[in-house]
Backbone:
């Protein structure tokens, strides 16, 4: 088992190397709060810089954070230098760092030459990072757009002054059915002097342990959807070499907490709460039937009552 050391991202001390990945819709403030106790870092979902500059209410909700939500990265994407300059002027002191998304494969994003499209042009990423030189900046990348140029990207990004790099070990055109290729994370770690956080296919404490053997941090995405207590079990594994099974009651309890938090912060609409609820209910006896009933619910009250009766 690896010995867990602290590391720093810029001047930010990271006490726990297990990170909650940024995930659109999933990692709102309420969800992050469920994971906080056991993660060393979390992020907002990816937000378009132009949306931040427009300050519309929906974007403000996505950007919502508070003093318990620490440390927190604001994840952004874009490709327009002028917008990056405007972002650099903003007061973003609520966030510990700005993470530039260079990995999103969605056509809506790459069509605007942002997200993973940036991987085609490491010089462009470098330019963006340099513009934000008054902030702690990190980047989340994939191995390349269609062909692997991760070593070049990593070196350019380091040269630009980024404080850490997250490597999702797939190409942008590879879906999640393609196994993440961790050997590239190891190679990047060998080549750069900044902290490297490895991402892709982590499902357990054992996976985290293996990831921490090759780089500084381990970032978990899909395995945490509807399962925030995975982070508790990861920590248990790192300390004891064993994980406990998360019980259905515990999962349900976490969903109940999410319902309260989502209401308090007003971060999620009913449709999203239902979609997420289905994730929490996976593995329950009669899950298909539960799901059917669940999806018919129309109000927050109905959801609370339904969950109360499970
Ligand atoms: C529902 C969902 C939403 C995601 N949204 C984002 C995002 O906003 N920003 C980002 O950098 N990556 C996003 N990702 C990618 C994940 O952060 C992560 O890189 C990827 O899922 C691989 O990690 P995993 O194998 O642990 O799932 C998203 C993934 C999922 C499944």
Residues:
């Amino acid at each position: 088992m690896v010995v867990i050391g602290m590391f720093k991202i810029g001047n930010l001390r990271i006490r726990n190397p297990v990170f909650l990945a940024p995930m659109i819709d999933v990692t709102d403030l309420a969800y992050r709060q469920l994971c906080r106790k056991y993660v060393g870092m979390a992020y907002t979902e990816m937000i378009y810089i132009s949306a931040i500059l427009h300050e519309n209410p929906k974007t403000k909700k996505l950007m919502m954070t508070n003093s318990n939500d620490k440390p927190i990265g604001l994840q952004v994407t874009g490709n327009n230098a002028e917008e990056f300059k405007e972002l650099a002027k903003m007061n973003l002191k609520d966030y510990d760092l700005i993470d530039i998304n260079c990995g999103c494969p969605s056509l809506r994003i790459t069509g605007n030459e942002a997200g993973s499209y940036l991987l085609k042009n490491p010089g462009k990423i470098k330019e963006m990072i340099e513009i934000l030189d008054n902030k702690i900046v990190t980047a989340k990348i994939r191995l390349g757009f269609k062909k692997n140029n991760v070593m070049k990207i990593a070196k350019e990004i380091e040269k630009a002054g980024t404080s850490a790099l997250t490597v999702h070990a797939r190409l942008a055109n590879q879906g999640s059915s393609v196994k993440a290729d961790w050997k590239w994370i190891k190679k990047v770690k060998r080549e750069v002097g900044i902290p490297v956080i490895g991402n892709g296919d982590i499902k357990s404490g054992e996976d985290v342990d293996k990831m921490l053997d090759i780089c500084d941090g381990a970032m978990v995405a899909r395995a945490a959807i509807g399962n925030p207590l995975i982070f508790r079990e990861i920590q248990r594994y790192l300390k004891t070499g064993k994980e406990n099974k998360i019980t259905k009651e515990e999962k349900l309890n976490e969903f109940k907490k999410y319902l309260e938090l989502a209401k308090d912060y007003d971060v999620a609409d009913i449709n999203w709460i239902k979609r997420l609820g289905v994730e929490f209910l996976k593995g329950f006896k009669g899950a298909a039937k539960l799901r059917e009933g669940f999806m018919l619910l129309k109000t927050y009250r109905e959801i609370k009552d339904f969950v109360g009766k499970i």
